[in-house]
Amino acid sequence: MGRITEDLIRRNAEHNECVIFSLEELSLHQQEIERLEHIDKWCRDLKILYLQNNLIAKIENVSKLKKLEYLNLALNNIERIENLEGCEWLTKLDLTVNFIGELSSIKTLTHNIHLRELFLVGNPCADFDGYREFVVVTLQQLKWLDGKEIERSERIQALQNYAAVEQQIREQEKAYCLRRAKEKEEAQRKLEEENESEDKKKSSPGFDGDCYTDIHADCPSAMENKDHLQVPETQEQQHSTKKSDEIEDDLAFWNKPSLFTPESRLETLRHMEKQRKAQDKLSEKKKKSETTPDFDYRRWEGPECE
């Protein structure tokens, strides 16, 4: 998985001659980043920050970005809104398709007095009854919510029904939190089972698919020579069986039912990463086999051995 490094930022700062301390715009989308870090120390002058389509689970380490106006965290694994109070000039915040179920966490945005646009569509909280009314009343400074302008008449009506809506939101939040707790528990149990299964595979004989010979054995007889000649065929069969098992495992992974949760997103990305590593390892082995000369079995004829 990716991390935010100085080198990564420099590579994405070509428009600023790779100088990062004076950057005003930075795009780090689709980097498989799991944690939001370092940016508030290295890029204090940022006004626009794109971090969409990553694996970020928490909003953090951005409080020193006083000049930040637009923050895009769409398609991440965020579950609550927090730690944005220090972004004094934040005008637009995009949290489309995350996992925010704690709608009351938007109250932290009341400190961002310049906030005009907020996107929460695609989050669990956006399906709550009374969602829009709650946001409209809570964030009086907002002009647009999920791409739709907030009319003055809508705000007045939302204020009139706020007491009932707030109670409704609390109840839905509570139900959601209970459900998420069960999902996390199930995901943890599943992860432990998979790790245990992997450990068993690694400890089983011939896990790496390599074939070993006994270097301490005496010189092979003519019959043993025949056995040696059959080894490459056996290796090919083992490789074919292993490849077939891997294909079956891969199909089973993609066909199994799965909830859309932060854990399932991580599981999918890690599965894909595992596939990439396995493919790289296979390619490396193939290159080595192509550069290694074939073994001359004629040298193992019995009569020549003492």
Automatic annotation (TrEMBL):
Residues 188-215, 228-306 are annotated as: Disordered. One of its GO terms (cellular component) is extracellular region. SUPFAM superfamilies: L domain-like. Keywords: Cell projection, Cilium, Cytoplasm, Leucine-rich repeat, Repeat. It is found in: Cell projection, Cilium; Cytoplasm. Residues 128-146 form the U2A'/phosphoprotein 32 family A C-terminal domain. The keyword Cytoplasm applies. GO terms for biological process: epithelial cilium movement involved in determination of left/right asymmetry; flagellated sperm motility; outer dynein arm assembly; protein localization to cilium; reproductive system development. Coiled coil: none annotated. It comes from the Eukaryota. Its main location: other. Residues 188-202, 264-306 have a biased composition (Basic and acidic residues). Belongs to the tilB family. Interacts (via CS domain) with ZMYND10 (via C-terminus). This is Leucine-rich repeat-containing protein 6. The gene is Dnaaf11.
